[in-house]
Amino acid sequence: MRETFISIFAIFWKDILSGLRTKEILTSVLVFGLLVLVIFNFAFEPGAGIRESVAPGILWVALVFAGVLGLNRTFDPEKENSCIEGLMLCPVERHVIYWGKLASSLTFMLMVAVIITPIFLALFDLPLFLPRLALIIALASLGFSAIGSLFSALSVGTRARDLLLPILFLPVAVPIIIAAVESTGLILEGRPWGDMWTWLQIMIAFDIIFLVISTLVFEFVVEE
Amino acid sequence: MRLRAMNDTAHTPPPRAIEAQGLARSFGGRRALAGVDLGVGHGECLTVFGPNGAGKTTLIKLLATLCRPSAGRAWVDGMDIRSQSVEVRRRLGVVTHSTYLYNELTVSENLRFYGRMYRIPDMEQRIREVVSQVRLESRIHDRVGTLSHGMQKRVSIARAVLHNPSILLLDEPESGLDLHAALMMRDILDTMNSGDRTVVMTTHNMERGLAIADHVAILHRGRIVYHAPKREIEVSGFQGIYSQHTS
């Protein structure tokens, strides 16, 4: 078990190091996310009337589409010099590669959320300290990364990769997106934990389902 | 009973380094490998020649567990490439056309990453050793993307032997190299092939392939059409044998 964690961490750290060196993905994703927030901020005049109804949607449009841009690049480092084959030659089970990639894409998504969310809260004149929103973002990001890492591996070898990932990813991620938007709305309305419990359960269930299925099928995706 | 078990073990021949029976692989409707049988003993070197599209790379990929055979079986050190693939990979070092190196990471960072994946003890010492073997000590802290193709290939060899594998699979290791780099590569591979390391190499370079081979095979249209120990081959006449079997 310890050895598995060492391998997962090795893949994770290699991706982080590589990502920090290039910076191009993080920069472009952040610029995209911020642009979405600013444009929507101008489109809807911030006010108590519309805040609860449109603000959650705006936040998740920014996070989901910025995330898709980033997830599209999850396997980019593995494409150059056929590094994916180098990874597959390592004496680890295939799902270890998946978990390593999942860890790095989750970190990437959380980094994007950590920068975009406070700006969103400030632009829409909302309280900056919302720990329940942090939980929702963490659960949704885990689900997105679980699906995105698998589909990114699936689409990396295709010519229409940039198109293929959103087409595959968004329909599957719909339950998590809906749950995230609804629970964010409840948080912004100041409703208690009990009201959002159903949405939380949906997110946790989908996270587990996606993690299990992706772990099981990743081997076939990379080998075939 | 115990005595009998011991006797059985004593009479069981040790597994060959590589054994394949009816190994086949199709991509869609196209058969890349159509039932290959081969065996390579420990410490032996098998050179596989064949024209482009003969199935050489597919054979290496199957033995390296990079893809699954459509039919047939193969064993590496007696271990099944399907059911014991992790153990098989631990024994293999692979050098192909691609370097498997991350351009954004330095030479040492690349080797450290693979070292962690292979759980190499005393890793820093081992990295210094292999970098010295490929004569790249002065570039160890340079990003791989800034190195020439020949240098990247040398780092790729260092990566392949980092975990001291007992079997080397070399898929046209000299492809894309200029004369100087190819000569240096030969030198490095000769050093690394010495001893009891088993080698399977595919190449178009007859002179080079025959120089290091103990056995020679010709692969054509996914089948082994010729296989012989090198001692039975007249080296000067091999071009004729090759043409005869691949025309």
List the helices and strands and how they pair.
The complex is a heterodimer of chains A (224) and B (247).
Chain A lengths: L1 H21 L1 H20 L4 H24 L4 H4 L3 H6 L5 H30 L7 H25 L5 H28 L4 H31 L1
Helix pairs in contact in A: 1-6, 2-3, 2-6, 3-6, 3-7, 3-8, 6-7, 6-9, 7-8, 7-9, 8-9
Chain B lengths: L1 H10 L6 E10 L2 E11 L4 E5 L6 H8 L7 E6 L2 E2 L4 H7 E4 L11 H11 L5 H11 L15 H13 L5 E5 L7 H15 L4 E5 L3 H7 L2 E6 L2 E7 L8 H9 L1
Parallel strand pairs in B: 3-8, 3-9, 6-7, 7-8
Antiparallel strand pairs in B: 1-2, 1-4, 4-5, 9-10
CATH fold label of chain B: Rossmann fold
Q: What's the SSE pattern of chain B?
A: HEEEHEEHEHHHEHEHEEH
- Quick one: which chains have the greatest interface? A-B, 28 and 30 residues
Rg of chain B, please? 19 Å
Domain count of chain A: 1
Q: Bin the strand percentage of chain A.
A: under 5%
For the secondary structure, the number of strands of chain B is: 10
* β-sheet strand percentage of chain B: 15-25%
Number of strands of chain A: 0
| Main beta sheet of chain B | 6 strands, mixed
- Would you identify the regions of chain A where 5 or more consecutive residues have pLDDT less than 50? none
Give the low-pLDDT segments of chain B.
1-10
Number of helices of chain A: 9
Category from helices, strands and their pairing of chain B:
alpha/beta
Mean pLDDT across residues of chain B = 86
Task: Give the averaged pLDDT of chain A, no decimals.
Answer: 88
Helix content of chain A: over 70%
Query: What is the approximate shape of chain A?
Result: globular
Q: Assembly type of the shown chains?
A: heterodimer
Name given to the CATH homologous superfamily of chain B: P-loop containing nucleotide triphosphate hydrolases
Number of helices of chain B: 9
